[in-house]
Each structure stands twice: as structure tokens, then as C-alpha cells.
Fold this protein.
Amino acid sequence: MQEYYQLQRDLFKVTLLMAAVVFGSVWIFYSLNIALNYLIGACTGVVYLRMLARNVEQLGRGKDRLGNTRLVLLVGLILIASRWNQLQILPIFLGFLTYKVALIFYTLRTAILPNSG
């Protein structure tokens, strides 16, 4: 379990670092409003990743499969963004996907440099 908890910490670090870099870049090249929309999505992605980690942790303890209740976060956020004029759907959705990019980055890093993780 220690390895799993270390993996969780590493994934959260990579996700938060990527979100910070992209947030700053979007703020510089676009606007603060779009960057904040991205940040809302990225924070939702981190919460989603945390919920996923908890579900995976419970898998061996009486739970047979993963639930899909985590997707309510994204669906709810997209619905709110579509109704509220200040929010933009695309930056929020791309921010949400930051955790997936972090997963791919972490996987490639450990595959290419196995002793660095």
C-alpha cells in the first residue's frame, strides 16, 4: 500500500504542477477570465482524481467494481457553465482533462526513466 500512496502523491504533484504551468500560460496568452475557467476545470479534475483514488483504494476491501458517481462532477460543472455567462465550457473541460495529461506524463516518465520515480 505504501507504493500506492506514493503513486497517489506523485500523481497529485504532477497534476497540480501542470495545472499551475498551464494556468499561467493561459493567463499570459489569453486572459484572466479564460485562465480562471481553466483553473475551475483543473480543480474539478483534481477532485475527480482524488475520488477515483479512494474508489481504487476500496476495491480490495469488499468492493467489487468502481462506481460512476464521479462523472456527476464533470456533468454538473458543464451544466453550470452552459447556464452561466461568465463560464466557458471549453477551458473548463480542458482544465478537467489536465489530470489525464498528468497520468500520461507520469506513465511516460516512469517507462523511459524507471529509476527517477
User: Anything to note?
Assistant: Helices lie at 2-29, 32-58, 71-83, 89-96, 98-112.
